[in-house]
Structures are given as C-alpha cells and as structure tokens.
C-alpha cells in the first residue's frame, strides 16, 4: 500500500463518517459558499493542523499554511506572492474579522534558520528555503546572541515567538489590513502551540507576552 492509498482509505472513512454526519453543513457550504470570520496563518508542519488544534468544523476558518507560518512584508512588485494573495483574499473578499498567526514548538524552518543550514544556497536544495527564511535573519541573529550570553535561554523558542511578532508587523504593512485595523473591523492575534504538551499561548497586546490559555 502506498502513502496515497492510505489517503484514499481516509477519504472513504471521511465519506462514510464525518461527511454524512455533517451533510447539512456541507450542503449549505456548497450552496452559499464560504464566509469564515477568521483566518489562521499556520506552519506547513504535519504535526500542527489548526483545524484540529482549534477543533473547528468545515467552513469556520480560512487557513494559510507555509514554512514557519511567516507573513512576508507588503511588496507590490509585480511578482507572484501566494501568501500575500491569500491574505488579500481573506481580508478584501471574504471579509474576515480576525487573523491569527499560529506558531509552534520544534518548528523545522526555525531550526534551519538557527543552524544556518541553508544560508547562501544559490541553486538546488535549500535555495527557496534560504530565501524564505531570510526575512527573519535579524531576529535569528538576536536569538543566537541572547542564547550565547545566557545558556538557559531557549533560542529556538525565542525565535519561534519572534517570528510570530514579525509576521504580525508585516501584516500591518498591507494597506488594506492597516486600514481595517485602524477602523476596528479587523483584529490581529498571535498564538504559539506546544506539540509536546498540547498547551497554547496567546500574545497579550497589553503585556507583550505570550500568556498560557487555561485548558
């Protein structure tokens, strides 16, 4: 049995189980389209599925996933920007009221940035990863320096949290996001999920700290 065969088996279970259980919901979505009130920007990591972390039903969240849950800065340069296009669609077309940047522990992209594994890759393996992760290079350098001066500091976690903050800053660089935030019709949030113990921390705008959510 191939990996794709396991997906087909999963589809059959879904079709016979959850799809039937939520048939009315799927029929409604098919007719009316989608109108989720919230967008979640999460990592592509197979261990962190936002629909499971937040236990949501189909149609409840609009999800963008990429390496290290990063948001690039606003760059209207004529290039092809999949992350920016998804954000634009969610904000201007769907009209989401909230955007959550969801980071997580043990992120492979963050680890690659810290180790410098793909730094300077020109072609072949690591080229696209290096270019993508370059946007957090200043935060990476700061995390490294902090860990060198204080051995008890977890540079990986420091950079995971810093990347969430940076992505929120980059979101605000999009004019259509900034306008809606200023008008109080759009709220930006940061969150961090621990794979190991299942805990969730949410960024508190007042304190600037990631505070644990009570289970």
UniProtKB/TrEMBL annotation:
GO biological process: carbon utilization
Binding site for Zn(2+): 43, 45, 104, 107
PROSITE patterns with a match to the protein in the record: PROK_CO2_ANHYDRASE_1, PROK_CO2_ANHYDRASE_2
Gene3D superfamilies, sorted: Carbonic anhydrase
CDD domains reported in the protein's UniProt record: beta_CA_cladeB (cd00884)
GO molecular function terms noted in the UniProt entry: carbonate dehydratase activity; zinc ion binding
InterPro entries per record: Beta_CA_cladeB (IPR045066), Carbonic_anhydrase (IPR001765), Carbonic_anhydrase_CS (IPR015892), Carbonic_anhydrase_sf (IPR036874)
Keywords: Lyase, Metal-binding, Zinc
Cofactor: Zn(2+)
EC numbers, comma separated: 4.2.1.1
Signal peptide segment: none
Transmembrane domains' residue ranges: none
Cofactor-binding details, from the entry: Binds 1 zinc ion per subunit.
Catalyzed chemical reaction(s): hydrogencarbonate + H(+) = CO2 + H2O
Cited function: Reversible hydration of carbon dioxide.
Family: Belongs to the beta-class carbonic anhydrase family.
Designated name of the protein: Carbonic anhydrase
Source organism (scientific name): Glacieibacterium frigidum
């Amino acid at each position: 049995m191939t990996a794709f065969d396991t997906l087909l088996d999963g589809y059959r279970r879904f079709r016979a189980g959850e799809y039937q259980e939520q048939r009315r919901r799927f029929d409604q979505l098919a007719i009316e389209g989608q109108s989720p009130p919230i967008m979640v920007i999460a990592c592509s990591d197979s261990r962190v599925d936002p629909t499971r972390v937040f236990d949501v039903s189909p149609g409840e969240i609009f999800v963008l996933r990429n390496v290290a849950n990063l948001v690039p800065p606003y760059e209207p340069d004529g290039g092809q920007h999949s992350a920016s296009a998804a954000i634009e669609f969610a904000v201007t077309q769907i009209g989401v009221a909230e955007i959550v940047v969801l980071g997580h522990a043990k992120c492979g992209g963050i680890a690659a940035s810290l180790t410098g594994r793909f730094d300077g890759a020109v072609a072949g393996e690591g080229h696209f990863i290096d270019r993508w992760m370059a946007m957090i290079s200043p935060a990476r350098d700061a995390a490294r320096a902090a860990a060198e001066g204080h051995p008890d500091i977890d540079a990986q976690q420091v950079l995971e949290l810093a990347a969430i903050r940076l992505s929120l800053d980059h979101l605000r660089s999009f004019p259509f996001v900034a306008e809606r935030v200023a008008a109080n019709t759009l709220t930006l949030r940061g969150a961090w999920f621990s794979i190991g113990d299942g805990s969730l921390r949410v960024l508190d705008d007042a304190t600037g700290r990631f505070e644990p959510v009570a289970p």
